[in-house]
Write a structure and sequence with these properties.
Helices cover about 35% and strands about 15% of the residues. It is an alpha/beta fold and about 160 residues long.
């Protein structure tokens, strides 16, 4: 068995040692309580009996018209405080999304919803990765779909094996 590499100041990955297993388990478990990925959201939306959550697009109307996930509820973040209770059932979890990993709009929307008492998760990757993974979307003009980007989804398979 090969011994583990030494933790030294010249190793940028191990300069700060990894957390203890129990600490890591708590952190990653908490992360999954706050986040869902695009593939899991797509699988849940396609499941018989419904996904068990509401998918919420927190972007502007212009962004929504440019493209959104079929079945999503459109509620821009600035309108959440005034409109959430008229659109969303507080007993049903909400999964928020925005443009993509370079945008924290879904996190802001999740924060606003949590402040109103909703159970909420953020969909990592947002609309960008929904499209990049080859899932169908809707625009103001109608239905859209693109081939999956092989850098984000396996070619010829709906299951990434994660």
């Amino acid at each position: 068995m090969t011994p583990p590499p030494a933790i030294t100041a010249d190793n940028p990955v191990l300069r700060v040692p990894p957390a203890a297993p129990a600490t890591a388990a708590a952190y990653f478990g908490a992360s999954l309580a706050f986040h869902a990925d695009v593939s899991d959201v797509a699988a849940a939306l396609a499941a018989d009996g419904g996904p068990g959550f509401v998918l919420l697009d927190s972007r502007s109307t212009t962004s929504w018209d440019q493209g959104h996930i079929p079945g999503a509820v459109h509620l821009p973040t600035p309108l959440i405080a005034g409109r959430a209770h008229g659109l969303l059932d507080p007993a049903v979890p909400v999964v928020t999304y925005c443009w993509g990993p370079g945008c924290n709009g879904a996190a802001r929307a999740a924060l606003a919803l949590a402040g109103l008492g909703y159970r909420v998760k953020e969909m990592l990757g947002g609309f960008e990765y929904w499209v990049r993974e080859g899932f169908a979307f809707e625009t103001r003009q109608g239905h859209g779909e693109r081939a999956a980007d092989p850098l984000t989804a396996p070619a010829g398979s709906a299951d990434c094996g994660c």
